[in-house]
Amino acid sequence: MSLAGRNWHQTLLALVVALFSYVELSGGHSNGESKLCSRDDLDVLSCSAESLTTSSCCVESPGGLLVQTQLYNFNPGLGPHNSWTIHGLWPDYCNGSYPSSCDSSREYKNLPKIFQENKLEWLMRYFKIYWKVLNGTDVDLWAHEWAKHGTCMSTLRPNCYANYEPHMELMQFFTTIYELYRRLPTFTFLSACGILPTNETTYTLETIETCLRAATGFVPHLGCSSDNYLNEIWYYFHLRGRLGDRNAGTTGFQGTNSTFKSTCSTEGIRYPHKSSADIDQHTEIEELFKHEDL
User: Fold this and answer.
1) Residue 200 near residue 238 (C-beta atoms within 8 A)
2) Is residue 273 annotated as a catalytic residue, yes or no?
């Protein structure tokens, strides 16, 4: 090969390397990652000192304490009898307070159509089983949770995407909720410790917290009604990188202890059977969805 040919070949190789380096750094088209984020940026943990000087497109800030919340409605029973149901995913501030309804222009209403356009009808079917509401429609609850909490997530702002497409951030919000909820099977955690729904006996707060600490490594917030019925759980996380990064899945979520004291009494906590659960078998339903590809 001539000198000119070698030089041309080296130049072409350098251009190819540079191109792939840029695609990897920006996250590429399929991921929609921010073109503003370097590898170091995406390694920053929310609520850390570094997050204060990192672009909020690359790390959740200032709402860097993410809370995956679940409910146990027993009268009337909602969802499968052997499962808790989804409440939402909230971006609390690092001190435990929280923002609310941050972008009215993105309060999307026609969710079934948006799910269909994004080929995520299966996810909507899943949510109709596991994301239930007592009053109103389930879809209205999903839209409310997005409008109140999802619009406050800094890394999901449209200007934080290199290749933004309509509703991309909404679908990433919902698929992240799905992934986290599947990672946190509260009913299974408690059952493994012998903590099962019963109308006969009660449980202590220490017993429940010890069980959940063993399962997750951290103590979540446990919520009880005024008459000490267990009905809510909040799992707390910090997040490394962007929400909805499909390369990372939920691996960027790092658990942490609750910032709020439990509203349950220390003893006499009631955890009853669901009076009229919508669906009988949680495990059979899970089997239908375990092969779905995000």
Assistant:
1) no
2) no
CA angle, 119 then 123 then 124, to 5°: 95
Catalytic residue among 33, 60, 81, 145: 145
Burial code (b: 16+ CB inside 10 Å, e: under 16) for 250-266 equals bebbeebebbeebebee
The mean-pLDDT minimum among 24-28, 177-181, 287-291 falls in 24-28
Helix axes 121-130, 168-183, angle to 10 degrees: 50
**Residue 149 annotated in active site:** yes
Look over the chain and give the mean of its residue pLDDT values, rounded to a whole number. Answer: 87
Q: Give bridge partners of residue 223 from the DSSP assignment.
A: 232
Angle at 50 between CA 45 and CA 52, to 5 degrees: 105
Tokens of 229: 């019925």
Catalytic option among 33, 60, 81, 87: 87
pLDDT tens digits, one per residue of 223-273: 999 999 999 999 999 999 999 775 555 679 999 999 999 999 999 999 999
The CATH code of the domain at 32-289 is 3.90.730.10
Is residue 166 within 8 Å of residue 63, measured between CB atoms? Answer: no
Q: Please write the tens of the pLDDT for every residue from 86-136.
A: 999 999 999 999 999 999 999 998 999 999 999 999 999 999 999 999 999
Task: Kindly indicate the confidence band of residue 29, based on its pLDDT and cuts at 50, 70 and 90.
Answer: very low
Residues with Cβ within 8 Å of residue 243, at least 6 apart in sequence: 60, 66, 153, 155, 156, 172, 173, 176
Catalytic residue at 221? no
Of 149, 221, 238, 282, the catalytic one is: 149
